[in-house]
TrEMBL record:
Organism per entry: Adlercreutzia muris
InterPro entries per record: FtsW/RodA
Annotated localization: Membrane
Region feature (Disordered): 348-416
Cellular component aspect of the GO annotation: cell division site; plasma membrane
MF annotations from Gene Ontology: lipid-linked peptidoglycan transporter activity; peptidoglycan glycosyltransferase activity
Described function: Peptidoglycan polymerase that is essential for cell division.
Keywords in alphabetical order: Cell cycle, Cell division, Cell shape, Glycosyltransferase, Membrane, Peptidoglycan synthesis, Transferase, Transmembrane, Transmembrane helix
Name recorded for this polypeptide: Probable peptidoglycan glycosyltransferase FtsW
Catalytic reaction list: [GlcNAc-(1->4)-Mur2Ac(oyl-L-Ala-gamma-D-Glu-L-Lys-D-Ala-D-Ala)](n)-di-trans,octa-cis-undecaprenyl diphosphate + beta-D-GlcNAc-(1->4)-Mur2Ac(oyl-L-Ala-gamma-D-Glu-L-Lys-D-Ala-D-Ala)-di-trans,octa-cis-undecaprenyl diphosphate = [GlcNAc-(1->4)-Mur2Ac(oyl-L-Ala-gamma-D-Glu-L-Lys-D-Ala-D-Ala)](n+1)-di-trans,octa-cis-undecaprenyl diphosphate + di-trans,octa-cis-undecaprenyl diphosphate + H(+)
Biased composition (Polar residues): 405-416
Membrane topology: Multi-pass membrane protein
Bilayer-crossing regions: 20-39, 46-66, 78-105, 117-133, 139-155, 162-183, 250-272, 284-307, 313-335
Length: 416
């Protein structure tokens, strides 16, 4: 889809028609390698001491973007290293999600008291996210971070009242951010894009072109590569509004197939989180899944006109290296939770649980006691005292188990 949606834009810029496609293919290959590496690494590594290095790098990238970032379409969100452009917010949101997991773990384990935990949340989450929002004017990424953190709280067993309070604060903050900024308030024109003050040629223009693309697609679409709106009518047809091109070329059937694929990702990710060995895996897999799928549905909601435009790409589909690599990082973290750890085999477990009774051999040169010598006499025989318990038959062949010996395999239950 990237090739079809971007070929006109590439030709208009004097580049080969496959320019965007070849770049995207490279990002997919690199992202696949990164996801495979993350899949092989224990997910607990990313909430250990290495997490604070990741957090520090994320904060440095945010500050560097604020100072040296490039302004594109009215927002300073890009940081250029030579000729390579990077959108740091795509990677910072993952760092903040992992920090939320660590902070919640420290609080639940009793390592940090409530007040100290709130201070840590303020320092490590709220302040960096607020700086990112303020300097980059990126409400979309801020909302995605908030949803991911709330998902971590839900998976971590935070009381519903607390989650509801946090959600209410986020909603109020979002409304203030929308109506407190003129250009964001202007995006509410999606409710009636033809009434934008310029007859549909103002702020409502792109959403109208998106409507045209979706309506022209019908049920089965106009055919792959036959889109009309990608001929410089629909802005960002290869990135933020690529779903409109999918709807035009592949129709309602193709668009619903994309939606169902993301529902499949949601189901698979939450299933991995539910079957995780510990709460760390549950929070990591659940938070990453919700963050990834929420961004996809946020993009689709903007394209079909049920939410104001946020400028967030469609994961795995939109053109863009930062978005593609960040999506594969999230996927790799989810897969790392699904990777089972090798535990002891059945035979090793049985051998570890087996009761061993060690019988000492008589020392060399020491005469063995004769049969019956030193034994208490059996009851009922003259000249032999009775056994203290009255009978030895119940104790014959038994010896007390050494202290500290694990119970038998039948008396223990294993998760695995």
């Amino acid at each position: 889809m990237v090739f079809s949606a971007s070929m006109v834009k590439a030709l208009e810029a004097g580049k080969p028609a496959s320019d965007f496609f070849t770049d995207q293919l490279l990002f997919v290959i690199v992202g696949s390698v990164v996801a495979a590496v993350l899949w092989r690494v224990n997910y607990r590594t990313w909430v250990g001491p290495a997490l604070w290095i990741i957090w520090a790098v994320a904060v440095v990238l945010i500050l560097a973007t604020a100072v040296m970032g490039t302004d594109n379409y009215g927002a300073k969100r890009w940081l250029y290293i030579g000729s390579v452009g990077v959108q740091p917010s795509e990677f910072c949101k993952i760092a903040f999600l992992l920090v939320a997991v660590r902070l919640l773990l420290d609080y639940r384990s009793g390592m940090v008291e409530f007040r100290a935990s709130m201070v840590r949340v303020l320092i490590f989450l709220i302040v960096p996210i607020a700086i990112m929002y303020r300097t980059q004017s990126d409400l979309g990424t801020t909302v995605i971070c908030a949803v991911g953190i709330i998902a971590v709280m839900w998976m971590g067993g935070v009381p519903r009242k607390v989650i509801a309070a946090v959600l209410a604060v986020c909603v109020v903050g979002g409304l203030i951010a929308i109506f407190g900024t003129g250009y964001r308030a202007g995006r509410l024109v999606f409710l009636d894009p033809w009434n934008d003050g310029k007859g549909g040629y103002g702020t409502g223009y792109n959403i109208i072109r998106s409507y045209y693309a979706l309506s022209e697609g019908g049920l089965f679409g106009v055919g792959l590569g036959n889109s009309h709106e990608k001929f410089q009518y629909l802005f960002a047809s290869e990135s933020d509004f690529i779903f409109a091109v999918i709807g035009e070329e592949l129709g309602l059937v193709g668009a619903m197939a994309v939606v169902l694929l993301f529902f499949g990702v949601l189901f698979a990710g939450l299933s991995i989180a539910e079957r995780s060995d510990d709460e760390i895996g549950t929070m990591v897999a659940g938070g990453c899944t919700v963050m990834l799928v929420f961004q996809a549905f946020l993009n689709i909601a903007c394209v079909i006109g049920v939410f104001p435009t946020t400028g967030k790409p469609l994961p795995f589909i939109s053109a863009g290296g930062s978005s593609m690599l960040a999506s594969f990082i999230l996927l790799g973290l989810i897969l790392s939770v699904s990777r089972p750890e090798r535990g002891p085999s059945v035979y090793e477990q049985r051998r570890a649980d087996l009761r061993l009774v060690r019988q000492e051999r008589p020392e060399e040169g020491r005469p063995r006691p004769s049969r019956g010598a030193g034994r208490p006499d059996r009851p009922g025989r003259t000249g032999r005292p009775d056994h203290p318990s009255g009978s030895r038959s119940s104790d014959r062949g038994r010896r007390p188990a050494p202290s500290g010996t694990a119970p038998s395999p039948r008396s223990r239950s294993f998760r695995r």
